[in-house]
Amino acid sequence: MNEKGNFTVKLNKGTKCTLVSRHERRISQIQQLNQMPLYPTEKIIWDENIVPTEYYSGEGCLALPKLNLQFLTLHDYLLRNFNLFRLESTYEIRQDIEDSVSRMKPWQSEYGSVVFGGWARMAQPIVSFTVVEVAKPNIGENWPMRVRADVTINLNVRDNIKEEWEGLRKHDVCFLITVRPTQPYGTKFDRRQPFVEQTGLVYVRGCEIQGMLDDKGRVIEEGPEPKPRLKGDSRTFRVFLDPNQYQQDTTSTIQNKTEDVYETFNIIMRRKPKENNFKAVLETIRNLMNTDCVVPDWLHDIILGYGDPSSAHYSKMPNQIAFLDFNDTFLSIDHLKASFPGYNIKVNVEDPALQIPPFRITFPVRSDAGKKRKECEDGEKDEDHKTLIVEPHVIPNRGPYPYNQPKRNTIQFTHTQIEAIRAGMQPGLTMVVGPPGTGKTDVAVQIISNLYHNFPEQRTLIVTHSNQALNQLFEKIMALDIDERHLLRLGHGEEELETEKDFSRYGRVNYVLARRLELLREVGRLQESLGVPGDVSYTCETAGHFFLYQVMSRWEEYISKVKVKGSKPPYVGDISNFFPFHQYFANAPQPIFKGRSYNEDMEIAEGCFRHIKKIFTQLEEFRAFELLRSGLDRSKYLLVKEAKIIAMTCTHAALKRHDLVELGFKYDNILMEEAAQILEIETFIPLLLQNPQDGFSRLKRWIMIGDHHQLPPVIKNMAFQKYSNMEQSLFTRFVRVGVPTVDLDAQGRARASLCNLYNWRYKNLGNLPHVQLLPEFRTANAGFLYDFQLINVEDFHGVGESEPNPYFYQNLGEAEYVVALFMYMCLLGYPAEKISILTTYNGQKHLIRDIINQRCGNNPMIGRPSKVTTVDRFQGQQNDYIILSLVRTKAVGHLRDVRRLVVAMSRARLGLYIFARVSLFQNCFELTPAFSQLTARPLQLHIIPTEYFPTRRQNGEHPSHQVHVIKNMPQMANFVYNMYMHMIQSTRQYRQDLLPPPALVEESEPLQSQESEVVQSQEAKMEMEAETKTTPVETAVQKVFDEKEKVAEEEEEHRKMPEHPGRDSDSEDSETEEDTEKSTLSC
Questions:
Q1: 234 by DSSP, 3-state: which?
Q2: Strand partners, 930
Q3: Does residue 998 have a cis bond before it (omega within 30 degrees)?
Q4: What confidence tens digit (pLDDT) does each residue in 240-251 have?
Q5: 3-state SS string over 783-802?
Q6: Is the Cβ–Cβ distance between 147 and 131 less than 8 Å?
Q7: Is the pLDDT higher at 129 or at 1011?
Q8: Does residue 67 contact residue 728 with C-beta atoms inside 8 Å?
Q9: What proportion of the chain, given as a percentage, has pLDDT over 90?
């Protein structure tokens, strides 16, 4: 106690530290996230406690967050997704690093340095690495604002690989790796042994590409201009390092006296662009957690999984719209009546001749209160709720030229499709479940078109999982009545659009500039026709003055002359006589005016003026492009102001969210295709690509179209997929929660018999009438007894499935059988592009491609199939004839997932031929509904080789030709070979019969003999091409296809391997020998 009577306590140093550590302010969770490096390092990547291995058995509990049906808050929702997405990305990065580094074969030289005994497509040795900038920290932060470095590599590789490295785009993520191998030169790598110890891997750090440097050391900017061509093989890339990680590493170096990580890198690795968006997604999630997430009030509880799951359905929305213009949705009044079963249809025009589309419909709008009153009101009130008032209307004349006529829909939608279109036009959440072939894309396009015409001031965002789906959607949008100046396609997939028009940002800017010049030329022609002096077609501004003072004045004067005055009947001829624009429209189909009635000619005159007015309206919209000088500014203006329909992938939305929000990007409606294939968080991010207005989201509609009975998002790690439920899409979660859906119930893709193989998975999935009526569906498959068949394949030389690398499953017998059937079909006359070969494993895909290359790839009589790919990659696509290889003979594998089975069975339109070990798959309970139908038919291939494509035989009709039963693969291979040789000999005999007698061409005998030699040499070459194709050594089919006497030069020529057939989205970088050996690929 001191003099004042107060107690004083003396604390030792240890006690003070304990108190401080216990009572100091903790770093908040969001601060920890902000300080966390987004790139995984070697400490995390190979830590089994953080990232479980692929061998997770499904038993036991893991320290992982889960994605369930409900979440506490939006912060909780985002945090769980952040952690899981980060870990799944880390797992994929580990696979890529192990694959690339092991291919490079790092060994220790006799001098102790690192030597690379191999090479990898996705990795290169680093020549030099230099940190060039460390920017000062922002206020309140202790890590640098920016860290940049230069990485130099030597691209002494094949041209296509060199182009891939030079094509690295801004924001692409690469990894810097340090290896210090301890194993001597020539040591073989064993994939079953620990990777890090074998390769001597020490450090892994991530970086982000800023750009490649030119000869003067400047970053080559992306844009429409072609990139400069650089000399030599040395290339330097400017990269951004992670500031948080850099600060941690430098602190550790200074405090712990450890080596500087950034002076040790000797490998740089890139990744496939489609799998490399993880950093942008993580940054976006982190940014969302740092801001106030504003989702629409009507969506908030549904996203978290609480409340009434149907509360966002249009029938319960307070702002439901009663009056809608369905534009060209209906083809006739009968189509409209059939589309609303259970409703009374009242047309406000009695004359049947006037009951033609387009139609406007007034719907009864009921509130909850109205529903309660309904119980105590009479039947008349109930009848009113089931009455639709239909108003036919005429689209105003748009001008006298043929291209002025609007494009019209030609699809007769079913009543469930109409319900989906109606729901999509109303505010709220619309969920459309679309089984295979039910017209999901057509419904989506019609919704977009109707929104465009009903709400011209609103903007619609289209989001899909893949570029291919987005391009299919876009190509159908272009076929409807939508002005192409309002279309914009963001992202790097627009190159695949099958159109000459460029809908990318810079492509649209170029279109606007070209269209501006075209319209100004039209203004000049109009000026000349009116005899107005001066240069009024110089700019959009001068054209606007010309319209206001010259065109409008003449039009108003004309209207005053021809309008009806009092009771005096108008004279029809006045409309043509006083029309001021005759000379301008001289190039239109004549006569412009029909002279039959006043109203008809007046509508034509007003249509001509609408055509002129539209020219000046567009020029007024394009005026900003005269004021904005740079392509970047113009493209930003286009995105923010001009475009009404903006399309992008979910990946692009995650990558560019920050840029879009900063630009002030706005939209009112979102339509998502392939919604069941999109990760939960990648579905959520597009909702927040705009800043809220006065604290509220301006989003009015969210239309999700997908099929949760087909394959979910791809999650490679089994622990995250099954334990954490990460493969559950937001679409699937909404279905499980009970959100109302519109289930499309009629397919028009496949024969009814093929549809039966998968329609058991859906509620009431039927067939559209054309599936039974069109000739192509009623005609049999030429050369086949059945339209679908399961063919049993036994072991070939005692071998069934093989696994040269982990999860790289192959089955040589099935692969040879599949290719032999493809060759047989082509020899019968089937177009090769109408046939696709699918398999359930990547290993089999590569094997089939190799066999096609060796058998028939360069043979003009056969060719290559449309695609050779996996079932997973072919989701969303179709072809007339599908040949399917199921590969496995020991265990069912991942085909046990019924969703994969549904995709596999639903890709074919006319013919499906499946090769498998029947005894294995028919005993799998999950596959019973499909395989019970498949095994009801013979399990040996039944063919009709004398029936050529196309045939007149009806499907199910007994053939008049002899049926051959193929017992096994060697018999089929032998049969196809003999068939091919017979065709070659028949062709030779036919050509010889066509040659004229020698006596008639005595003078031209040398020429004829020369032609004969050419013909014979071509035949010999084709014959030799068939006979010199070789297969892998282990197959005995060699005996069938090889000729005993071979010329060495010809053998060498035919052994050259062309590029893989059926190039598609999954084969962009799988055409090299090194990639076919990839061990970690499995579907």
A1: strand
A2: none
A3: no
A4: 999 999 999 999
A5: CECCCEEEEECCCECCECCE
A6: yes
A7: 129
A8: yes
A9: 58
- Angle formed by the axes of helices 730-737 and 297-304, nearest 10°: 90
Residues 75 and 285: their CA atoms lie apart, in Å, by: 10
| Prior bond of 950 cis (ω within 30°) | yes
Query: Could you report the per-residue pLDDT of 835-850, keeping only the tens digit for each?
Result: 999 999 999 999 999 9
Whole-number mean pLDDT of the chain?
85
Q: What is the model's pLDDT at position 326?
A: 93
Return d(Cα 157, Cα 164) in angstroms, integer.
11
Partners of 219 in the β-ladder: 213
Where helices occur in 628-670 by DSSP H, the ranges are 631-637, 650-663
Query: Measured between alpha carbons, how far is 310 from 315 in angstroms, rounded to an integer?
Result: 9
Mean pLDDT in residue range 44-66: 81
Could you report the per-residue pLDDT of 558-614, keeping only the tens digit for each?
A: 999 888 877 777 788 888 999 999 999 999 998 899 888 888 999 999 999 999 999
Residue with tokens 């892998």: 1032
Residues with Cβ within 8 Å of residue 363, at least 6 apart in sequence: 322, 323, 324, 388, 422
Question: pLDDT (tens digit, 9 = 90+) per residue, 127-176?
Answer: 999 999 999 988 888 889 999 999 999 999 999 999 999 989 888 899 99
User: Which class for 824: exposed (0-12), middle (13-18), buried (19 or more C-beta within 10 A)?
Assistant: buried
Residue 572's closest CA among 608, 603, 597? 597
Closest CA to 605 of 645, 570, 636, 651: 570
- Report CA torsion sign: 693, 506, 476, 611: positive
pLDDT-based confidence at residue 494 (cuts at 50, 70, 90): low
CB 471 within 8 A of CB 498: yes
| Coil, strand or helix at 529 | helix
Question: Looking at the predicted structure, is the pLDDT value of residue 1042 above 60?
Answer: no
- Shortest CA distance to 883 belongs to which of 929, 926, 830? 830
What is the reported pLDDT for 48? 85
How many other C-beta atoms can be found within 10 angstroms of the C-beta atom of residue 456? 9
CB-side neighbour CA atoms (13 Å) of 599: 1
Look at residues 636, 615, 647 and name the one whose alpha carbon lies nearest to residue 477: 647
What region does 750 belong to: left with phi over 0, alpha with psi -120 to 50, or beta? beta
- Tell me the backbone φ, ψ of residue 777, rounded to 5 degrees: -85, -25
**Which tokens is 580 given?**
């001021």
Contact between 417 and 690 under an 8 Å Cβ cutoff? The reply is: no
The DSSP 8-state label assigned to residue 1079 in this structure reads: S
Instruction: Identify the residue whose tokens are 């590599």.
Output: 153
Give pLDDT tens digits for 698-707. 999 999 999 9
CB 178 within 8 Å of CB 265: yes
Contact 572, 603 (CB under 8 A): no
Please report the pLDDT score of residue 816 as a whole number.
95
Confidence band (pLDDT; 50, 70, 90) for 498?
Answer: low
pLDDT digits (tens, 9 = 90+) for 861-907: 899 999 999 999 999 899 999 999 999 999 998 899 999 999 999 99
Q: What span, in angstroms and rounded, lies between the C-alpha atoms of 724 and 1031?
A: 44
Q: How far apart are CA 531 and CA 583, in angstroms?
A: 10
Do 827 and 862 form a contact (C-beta atoms < 8 A)?
yes
**What does the block give as tokens for 467?**
């570029």
Residue range 1043-1069: average pLDDT? 36
Give me the helices (H) in 141-216, please.
159-166, 195-199
The rounded Cα 845 to chain-centroid distance in angstroms is: 21
Backbone torsion region of residue 1017, taken as left when φ is above 0, otherwise alpha when ψ lies between -120 and 50, otherwise beta = alpha
